[in-house]
Amino acid sequence: MATRPVEIGPAGLRTARAIEHLRLVRSLTQHQLAARCTALGRPMSNTALSRTERAHRRCDVDDLVAIATALGVPPMALLLPLPSVSSNDRRGC
């Protein structure tokens, strides 16, 4: 009997969004970020990274640490909700 994969929960969805957000803020392509993870000793393809960002692939703790290190942030930064921007904070836009 085949088992269904475990759905990605709220923390996983936040992590996926945070990875993509920080990658874009740092002007990195998925290929570049995946290469950084690989250079850190955690082999990762850009396809795996893309699936992680789209929440089609679970991000295990080893991936989380490698991605955070490659982005220059502590792993906890990928787990916490992204700060929202209120209309008062959008001065000059």
UniProtKB/TrEMBL annotation:
Pfam families: HTH_31. InterPro entries: Cro/C1-type_HTH (IPR001387), Lambda_DNA-bd_dom_sf (IPR010982). Residues 19-79 form the HTH cro/C1-type domain. This is Helix-turn-helix domain-containing protein. It comes from Streptomyces tricolor.
